[in-house]
Amino acid sequence: VCCLEMTTKRKLIGRLVPCRCFRGEEEIVSVLDYSHCGLQQVPKEVFNFERTLEELYLDANQIEELPKQLFNCQALRKLSIPDNDLSSLPTTIASLVNLKELDISKNGIQDFPENIKCCKCLTIIEASVNPVSK
């Protein structure tokens, strides 16, 4: 998979343990990095790890919208999507109740959905270089 980066711990385990798919175990991936991959949408592979994914980096791509399925990633703590082509954040962002950091800088976002306040753990929002009006 292009630009797929897993945690160092996972890389080490991957070398020591044979493929888990033959044993019926779920693969645990907590970090995915698809930065600078020329993507126009969030890769579908991301959703294979919606239970374990904690950090997702989609920096410097051409993504215009975030798919609804992304907001099923309940363990997500950091979402980094700067330097893309987003014009809005969907209201479904409120379902990311464990989100602590959100980087949406260098996009075209004009406002935040009112229900973003439902993200009770959200402590860092980087939204510079956006035409935010409210």
UniProtKB/TrEMBL annotation:
InterPro entries: Leu-rich_rpt (IPR001611), Leu-rich_rpt_typical-subtyp (IPR003591), LRR_dom_sf (IPR032675), Synaptic_Scaffolding_LAP-MAGUK (IPR050614). One of its GO terms (biological process) is positive regulation of neuron projection development. GO terms for molecular function: protein kinase binding. Keywords: Leucine-rich repeat, Repeat. The keyword Transport does not apply. One of its GO terms (cellular component) is axon initial segment. PROSITE patterns: LRR. This is LRRC7 protein. It comes from Eubucco bourcierii.
